[in-house]
Amino acid sequence: MSVTRRTFLKTSAAAAAAAALGRAANPGAAPVEKPLPKPLRILILGGTGYLGPATIECALARGHKVTMFNRGKTRPDLFPTVERLQGDRDPLKGEGLKALEKGEWDVVIDNSAYYPRPVSASATLLAPRCKQYIIISSISAYKEPNPENGTENAPLATLADPKVEEMGKEYQNYGGLKALCEQAAQAAMPGRVTVVRPGFIVGPDDPSGRFTYWPVRMDRGGEIAVPGGQDDPVQIIDVRDLGAWLVRLAEDRTTGVFNATGPARKLPWGRLVEACQKATPAKGTLTWIPAEFLAKQEGADFPIWAPFTGETKGFHTWSNARAIAAGLRFRPVEDTARDTLAWFKTQEKAEKGRTRLAGPSPEGEAKLLAAWKAAQGQKP
Question: What is the pTM of this model?
Answer without folding.
Answer: 0.91
